[in-house]
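Support request, please re-run this one:
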Amino acid sequence: MTDEDEDFLKAIHQSVQRRLSYELELPQGAEFEVLAYAPILWSGWECDSAAALYRILPDGEPRLYVLDGVHTPRSRLLEALEERLTAYERAIANTKAFIAKARKAQGEHDDG
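Re-run finished. Output below.
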């Protein structure tokens, strides 16, 4: 893991910690570990969200958490992430097609 990765994870941990401080499920003063983190990207939104998998230390059960979960309840987080993957893959394909068409169009224009 690079220093940049470690810094990123520290920032995520702080963000999750700040947000979890409002969670009734988390005992007051409990320590936890962020096991995984993934952004939840929404095309056309000005504020995306994120999902975190964490556990309360020392031996807590892994739990899912949606940071700023405006439209993604925890109960359907994994399903929503799978839906987002489909949207990401579609967006990547559309972006690649756009770039190819734009390069071709510019090449045709430059040759003329």
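Residues 88 and 94 are 10 Å apart (CA to CA). The chain has one domain: 3-111.
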